[in-house]
Fold:
Amino acid sequence: MTDVAKPDVRPACPLFSSGPTAKRPGFSLEKLETAALGRSHRSAAAKAKLKQAIDRTKEILGLPDDYRVAIVPASDTGAVEMCMWSMLGQRAVDVFAWESFGKDWVTDAVNELKLADCNIHVGDFGVLPPFEQARDDADIVFTWNGTTSGVRVPNADWIKPNPDRVVICDATSAVFAQDMEWEKLDVITYSWQKVLGGEAAHGMLILSPNAVRRLESYKPERPLPKIFRMTKGGKLNEALFEGNTINTPSLLCTEDYLQALDWAEECGGYQGLKARSDRSLEILTDWVAKTDWVEFLCADENVRSNSGITLSIVHPTFAKMDEPAQRDFIKRMMKRLEDEEACFDANGYAKAPPGLRIWCGATVEPDDVAKLTPWLEWTFAEELAAL
Structure:
């Protein structure tokens, strides 16, 4: 490579972590003074805020009228787990995975739940699994957007409507960033810490009428911990969907989420947020096209994520290194960028192929993505020259 000049303009916000993600533009702790701090989460004031978070989520996302929304423990992971453990086992199950977190649901289905009739379909990093092999009568578990692989499903055409089954979708890095076909999905989960830049530990659970019917008609033989129980006396516990959370929520985090929803509305709702992520992807696509040492991990632009974007280094010198050396090289790149306060936390996921992972959810300014690319060029050139 020729010498690359050190950039003199840094991203205004150099935070590119895939979770927790950068806070929304204009955030400050002082704005959270309206939180119901010190109040019982069962008090009228606190419950009103929790119910507001539920109702506004449904409105901004444009969910069907008969879908229910709840705030649940343990982030997106908790939301997925409580549904897998409460709903699966009545009928056959197909689990689709192509990145690290989707493979966690494979582990649950096979090793923990030990589901009797369970087909597993796993794709390599950067490639979708064979969705055409989904059975029309089987329950389905899949991830809409893979944050560790940079791959998303393009649509839900492969899901055939069947009111007797449930489709569980881990959508934590897709909700508010991508168009989703709600009517094809019975369980949708996400966390505040992704596209809206909220704080961790709270999961959002969205249920269709099909999912409610499953909960009310099927009781698995396995024991269910308290935080997994969504029914009382064989009926859906409606209180959960009115703001009576299973365990104590953070009212500070709730206030932050409500203000993030305010910001989402100011941006034009979820379509406005999606447009911000789409613009960041366009910027990186243009940069990759003219940069000879980097490529997208996901080669197919039709399924490439616009939120968790993964890049592979393809320079011949890098390609000749063994994997530990490649990972060390990228760590040195990240250390150099951190020392310059130009970029934080853009290393690829530890279990993914060595590379870069740049979060481009809506809280990241597209202009900052544009300002990041010269820094990536500079640090790569510096580390290459140091070999």
Q: What stands out?
A: The chain has two domains: 29-265, 269-385. The CA atoms of residues 63 and 182 lie 7 Å apart.
